[in-house]
């Protein structure tokens, strides 16, 4: 009952008071809640403002790299060897294509699409964002562009886009030197600086394109784009143009290079020409070669297969990656070693009987001439390539001195040329044998004997021989070979790349140099029928004196002691490597050439003419005469001895033994002249 | 004068015009707020005049509703209350059976327009609770609390089932505020809150997966930055990058470049925070606090229990909008579909809010006479 009464008479005033208290409490709670909210906004907008401001900018402002134009490559006279040419490619924006497969099928009827193109496209499609353009077909022909233009309306999201592509105008001529660029692949991405290569599609793969990648590439520019959440560009906020790569100027003359390549007439081999005064490479060919343009956009499987399976292996740069036994081409260096170590004087003679025996051993080491060359001094040993002289000399020097001396001239180690992938070759030494032949570590005297004539363990590249010859011809001053002569920023004149000598002259006594030089001139000019160059008249009609040496290295060890009387050239060519080394002018050398012919029968006969053609081409580039800064013989070779002696005495103001030796030489030259 | 219905309508309209029965401070605050709302919408909607015009038309419609509602005395409303409540609940059931809408069955197609019955419930819920408590002895005992609880729970459950967690939350809050204002003892409140807290795992069990994900994502948005976390991360970036002074009107990159999703509706407050900074946030929160305070003032001045509870509950549930939306935008609360009142673009919610303010105007006009 009391409950009912309390219900009837509500305490309205009390209720009003209760409500007032509750409303105030509720408002206080609400203010508290709003303060908490403000606290959160202070946390975000004041305490963490910098972080969120940065994230906001990162959201909306995206840098877009502008790839730099790659530096161009010229020969020493400005002939363009590597160019950037405008080309067109088809690009597809995936987000604008409704049905990709259907579109590709229809597009294939308008513009022919290779399976290779489609594979690459699909691969890249998976890796890119939907609004990023993906290249579909590179290097559209004018025909492709015209046909696409007509039916373009049918293909939304497909566009023809211009770009710059690497082009090698001289094709195979410089393939091994300049190399080529190709598409950057997944493996490259691991090792590249992603900032520098943003937007770049190609990278130097071999040759100079690779070794000078850093200079050729340049620095990318960028623009700051404002993008929306879909990544579409709304406006360009800032633009920083890229810095193009540096242009390279080679020391190679394209004309000499061409002559060198042609001289091989397609036979496998290599030739290198170096300026002894500074190490500049004047020509470097490896035959056969290939078209580097094939690689720029990804070589087709068929093309690649044919290059790989070709028996002559055109992809290998023989000039610096293929080592051969040098054979007799090391003999001048051996002779020099004998003089420099004081083991021989030039006039010291040895009797060549046809066979040489190490004292106390029964195995014979043969001469070229069956019954020997008789009494042989240094000059004859060189021009007639008398093995016995060098067998004995090597034995007297000992292998340690031989390898020490040869190492000075760069044998057995990379020459240091500015091209990648050079091999070291092999210089026979105790250390080398101990390392590479662990079962049979002892060095035998017989190995020293055959090392003396460039056989045995020896392996030398054409580049190494040219480098050694240039070092000798430059009076012993060693320069690392250089292909790039100077570089230039775009719009600037080229500035030379310094290439200081690697050390002081290797030659202790310039008389030794004169003697060996004399012996090498006799190879060309001697009237002795025993001279290896006697029949071939390699110096005829050349205005300067040549100094050279042939080499005929055996590819296989002989199996018996019997003389092989087979004189069939094809048979011999299959067994021999033909070498020829030559420098000129003999007194003041300006070019040193090494030629190797993989299947040459005889050095002087087969490789010699190639070397001569290279010299002829070089001469033509010099205007057919020695440039004014060099002492000039008045009438070609006839005046050479006098000029030679004055030159020598000018350079080395001491008594030279040239007075004795040049006499027969000059007469032989005179004979050759007629 | 013959008192035809025609002359009565005429008289009604004339009085509406001549002597609007409105509270000027509240009306002025609402006008200011709708101005801010339209300016923000203009920027967030990328200067889309059609969008802003549509919203302005709704505000105009809302103003007319305020005028109309202000003429209806609270006693009349009280008499209608059970029928309104019953009607809204039936409509909710109808929607549950044959509703249509994108993803969630919330909408009822009336032929000429579609509308959400749950919006009605935002207003009828506090009316019903106030109606129930009006004749009863206050503070309420357990029995009344239980009845009110049932009155709240049935529509709230129907709305939550749609699923529209945001509106269910607002409806529940409106009823609960009426109960709170009726003087329900603090300890009973505490006890119920503790029980509700204990029930949380059960609620978790009944939640949709996407609702669970929203809560998980709020706790760690970086776990899925491109999926569920995207809204929260981009919204916080917008708010945080605004700093103290903001990026300036129409300078918010987060919304202009579409990084911020729903930047005209649920996340418009992030645009506001980005462009006007902490100063703008504080200013608009002061405005909201003023409106809520004015509502509570009107409630305290009201003549009877029904009016008091109704006005107080409407005012306090306004706070729920602000707090939930503001908290969501700032990553303090999970993402639920609660708009920022008068700022978010959206039809029914703006109109239903203004109808609620019309009720407040009516209560204000019928306040008690001080002696």
Automatic annotation (TrEMBL), chain A:
Q: Ranges of Polar residues compositional bias?
A: 665-674
Q: Which residues form the Penicillin-binding protein transpeptidase domain?
A: 269-616
The reaction(s) catalysed by this protein are: Preferential cleavage: (Ac)2-L-Lys-D-Ala-|-D-Ala. Also transpeptidation of peptidyl-alanyl moieties that are N-acyl substituents of D-alanine
Transmembrane residues, as ranges? 23-43
HAMAP family for this protein: MrdA_transpept
- Family matches, as NCBIfam families: pbp2_mrdA
- Name the job this protein performs: Catalyzes cross-linking of the peptidoglycan cell wall.
Please give the name of this protein: Peptidoglycan D,D-transpeptidase MrdA
Species of origin reads Dyella acidiphila
Automatic annotation (TrEMBL), chain B:
| Superkingdom | Bacteria
EC numbers for this chain:
2.4.99.28
- What family is reported? Belongs to the SEDS family. MrdB/RodA subfamily.
As for subcellular location, the record says: Cell inner membrane; Membrane
Q: What protein name applies here? A: Peptidoglycan glycosyltransferase MrdB
Task: Kindly indicate whether the keyword Cell inner membrane belongs to this entry.
Answer: yes
Task: Alphabetically list the UniProt keywords.
Answer: Cell inner membrane, Cell membrane, Cell shape, Cell wall biogenesis/degradation, Glycosyltransferase, Membrane, Peptidoglycan synthesis, Transferase, Transmembrane, Transmembrane helix
Q: What does this protein do?
A: Peptidoglycan polymerase that is essential for cell wall elongation.
Q: In which pathway does it act?
A: Cell wall biogenesis; peptidoglycan biosynthesis
* Xref: HAMAP family: PGT_RodA
Membrane-spanning segments: 21-43, 49-68, 80-99, 141-159, 165-182, 276-297, 309-336, 342-363
> What does UniProt list as this organism's lineage?
Bacteria, Pseudomonadati, Pseudomonadota, Gammaproteobacteria, Lysobacterales
State the annotated membrane topology for this chain: Multi-pass membrane protein
Q: Which NCBIfam families match?
A: rodA_shape
Q: What class of enzyme is it?
A: transferase
Q: Which reaction does it catalyse?
A: [GlcNAc-(1->4)-Mur2Ac(oyl-L-Ala-gamma-D-Glu-L-Lys-D-Ala-D-Ala)](n)-di-trans,octa-cis-undecaprenyl diphosphate + beta-D-GlcNAc-(1->4)-Mur2Ac(oyl-L-Ala-gamma-D-Glu-L-Lys-D-Ala-D-Ala)-di-trans,octa-cis-undecaprenyl diphosphate = [GlcNAc-(1->4)-Mur2Ac(oyl-L-Ala-gamma-D-Glu-L-Lys-D-Ala-D-Ala)](n+1)-di-trans,octa-cis-undecaprenyl diphosphate + di-trans,octa-cis-undecaprenyl diphosphate + H(+)
């Amino acid at each position: 009952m009391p409950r009912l009464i309390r219900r009837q008479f509500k305490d309205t005033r009390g209720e009003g008071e209760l409500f007032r208290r509750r409303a105030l409490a509720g408002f206080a709670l609400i203010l508290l809640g709003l303060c908490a909210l403000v606290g959160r906004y202070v946390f975000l907008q004041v305490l963490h403002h910098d972080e969120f401001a940065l994230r906001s900018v990162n959201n909306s402002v995206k840098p877009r790299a502008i790839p730099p134009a790659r530096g161009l490559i010229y020969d020493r006279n400005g002939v363009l060897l590597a160019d950037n040419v405008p080309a067109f490619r088809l690009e597809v924006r995936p987000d604008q294509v409704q049905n990709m497969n259907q579109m590709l099928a229809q597009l294939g009827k308008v513009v022919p699409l290779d399976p290779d193109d489609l594979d690459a496209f699909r691969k890249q499609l998976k890796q890119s964002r939907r609004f990023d353009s993906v290249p579909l077909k590179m290097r559209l022909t004018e025909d492709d562009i015209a046909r696409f233009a007509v039916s373009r309306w049918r293909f939304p999201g497909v566009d023809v886009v211009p770009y710059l592509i690497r082009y090698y105008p001289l094709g195979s001529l410089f393939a091994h030197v300049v190399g080529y660029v190709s598409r950057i692949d997944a493996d490259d991405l691991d090792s590249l600086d992603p900032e520098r290569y943003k937007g770049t599609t190609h990278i130097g793969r071999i040759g100079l394109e690779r070794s000078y990648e850093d200079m050729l590439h340049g620095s990318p520019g960028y623009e700051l784009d404002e993008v929306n959440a879909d990544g579409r560009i709304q406006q360009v906020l800032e633009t920083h143009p890229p810095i193009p790569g540096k242009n390279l100027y080679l020391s190679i003359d394209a004309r000499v290079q061409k002559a060198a390549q042609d001289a091989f007439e397609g036979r496998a081999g290599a030739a290198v020409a170096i300026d002894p005064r500074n190490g500049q490479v004047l020509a470097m060919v490896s035959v056969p070669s290939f078209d580097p343009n094939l690689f720029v956009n990804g070589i087709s499987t068929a093309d690649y297969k044919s290059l790989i399976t070709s028996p002559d292996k055109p992809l290998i740069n023989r000039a610096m990656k293929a080592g051969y036994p040098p054979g007799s081409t090391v003999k001048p260096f051996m002779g020099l070693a004998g003089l420099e170590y004081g083991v021989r004087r030039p006039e010291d003679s040895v009797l060549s009987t046809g066979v040489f025996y190490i004292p106390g051993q029964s195995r014979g080491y043969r001469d070229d001439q069956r019954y020997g060359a008789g009494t042989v001094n240094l000059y004859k040993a060189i021009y007639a390539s008398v093995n016995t002289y060098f067998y004995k000399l090597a034995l007297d020097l000992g292998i340690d001195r031989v390898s020490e001396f040869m190492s000075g001239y760069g044998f057995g180690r990379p020459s240091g040329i500015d091209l990648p992938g050079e091999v070291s070759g092999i210089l026979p030494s105790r250390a080398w044998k101990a390392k590479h032949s662990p079962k049979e570590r002892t060095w035998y005297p017989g190995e020293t004997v055959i090392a003396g004539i460039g056989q045995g363990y020896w392996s030398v590249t054409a580049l190494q021989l040219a480098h050694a010859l240039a070092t000798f011809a430059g009076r012993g001053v060693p320069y690392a070979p250089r292909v790039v002569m100077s570089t230039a920023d775009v719009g600037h004149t080229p500035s030379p790349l310094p290439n200081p000598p690697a050390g002081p002259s290797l030659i202790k006594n310039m008389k030794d140099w004169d003697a060996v030089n004399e012996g090498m001139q006799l190879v060309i000019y001697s009237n002795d029928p025993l001279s290896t160059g006697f029949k071939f008249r390699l110096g005829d009609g050349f205005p300067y004196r040549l100094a050279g040496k042939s080499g005929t290295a055996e590819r296989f060890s002989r199996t018996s002691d019997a003389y092989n009387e087979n004189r069939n050239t094809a048979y011999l060519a299959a067994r021999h490597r033909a070498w020829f080394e030559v420098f000129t002018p003999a007194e003041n050398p300006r070019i040193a050439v090494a030629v190797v012919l993989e299947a040459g029968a005889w050095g002087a006969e087969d490789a010699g003419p190639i070397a001569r053609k290279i010299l002829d081409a070089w001469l033509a580039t010099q205007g057919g005469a020695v440039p004014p800064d060099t002492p000039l013989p008045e009438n070609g070779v006839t005046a050479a001895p006098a000029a030679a002696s004055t030159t020598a005495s000018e350079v080395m103001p001491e008594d030279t033994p040239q007075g004795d030796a040049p006499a027969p030489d000059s007469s032989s030259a005179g004979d050759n002249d007629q | 004068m013959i008192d035809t219905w025609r002359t009565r309508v005429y008289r009604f309209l004339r009085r509406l015009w001549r002597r609007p029965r409105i509270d000027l401070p509240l009306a002025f605050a609402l006008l200011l707020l709708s101005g801010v709302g339209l300016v923000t919408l203009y920027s967030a909607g990328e200067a889309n005049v059609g969008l802003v015009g549509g919203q302005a038309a709704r505000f105009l419609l809302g103003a007319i509703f305020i005028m109309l509602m202000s003429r209806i005395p609270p006693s009349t409303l009280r008499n209608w209350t059970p029928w309104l409540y019953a009607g809204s609940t039936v409509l909710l059931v109808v929607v549950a059976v044959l509703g249509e809408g994108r993803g969630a069955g919330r909408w009822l197609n009336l032929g000429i327009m579609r509308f959400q019955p749950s919006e009605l419930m935002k207003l009828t819920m506090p009316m019903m609770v106030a109606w129930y408590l009006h004749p009863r002895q206050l503070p309420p005992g357990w029995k009344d609390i239980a009845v009110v609880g049932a009155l709240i729970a049935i529509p709230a459950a129907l709305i939550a089932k749609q699923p529209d967690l945001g509106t269910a939350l607002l409806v529940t809050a409106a009823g609960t505020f009426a109960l709170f204002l009726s003087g329900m003892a603090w300890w009973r409140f505490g006890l119920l809150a503790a029980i509700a807290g204990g029930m949380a795992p059960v609620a978790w069990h009944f939640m949709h997966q996407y609702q669970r994900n929203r809560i998980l994502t709020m706790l760690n948005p970086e776990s899925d930055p491109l999926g569920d976390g995207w809204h929260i991360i981009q919204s916080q970036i917008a708010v945080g990058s605004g700093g103290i002074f903001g990026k300036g009107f129409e300078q918010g990159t987060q919304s202009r470049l579409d990084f911020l999703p729903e930047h005209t509706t649920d996340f418009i407050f992030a645009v506001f925070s980005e462009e006007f900074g902490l100063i703008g946030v504080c200013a608009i929160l002061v405005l909201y606090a003023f409106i809520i305070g004015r509502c509570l003032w009107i409630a305290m001045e009201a003549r009877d229990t029904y009016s008091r509870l109704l006005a107080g509950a409407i005012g306090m549930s306004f706070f729920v909008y602000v707090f939930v939306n503001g908290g969501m935008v700032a990553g303090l609360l999970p993402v639920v579909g609660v708009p920022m009142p008068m700022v978010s673009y959206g039809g029914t919610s703006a109109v239903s809010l203004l109808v609620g303010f019309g009720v407040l105007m009516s209560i204000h006009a019928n306040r008690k006479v001080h002696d």
